[in-house]
Amino acid sequence: MPDKRTPGSSSSHTIMPQEPAQADRFGRARQARSATLLEDYAELIADLLATGGEARTVDVARRMGVAHATAVKTIGRLKREGLVTALPYRGVFLTEAGHALADRVRARHRLVVELLVAVGVPVEDAEADAEGIEHHVSDGTLAAFAGFLQARK
Amino acid sequence: MPDKRTPGSSSSHTIMPQEPAQADRFGRARQARSATLLEDYAELIADLLATGGEARTVDVARRMGVAHATAVKTIGRLKREGLVTALPYRGVFLTEAGHALADRVRARHRLVVELLVAVGVPVEDAEADAEGIEHHVSDGTLAAFAGFLQARK
DNA sequence: CAGGATATGTAGCATAGGCTATATTCGACG
DNA sequence: CGTCGAATATAGCCTATGCTACATATCCTG
Ligand SMILES: [Mn+2]
Ligand SMILES: [Mn+2]
Ligand SMILES: [Mn+2]
Ligand SMILES: [Mn+2]
Question: For residue A2, which residues of chain B lie inside 8 Å, CB to CB?
Answer without folding.
Answer: 53
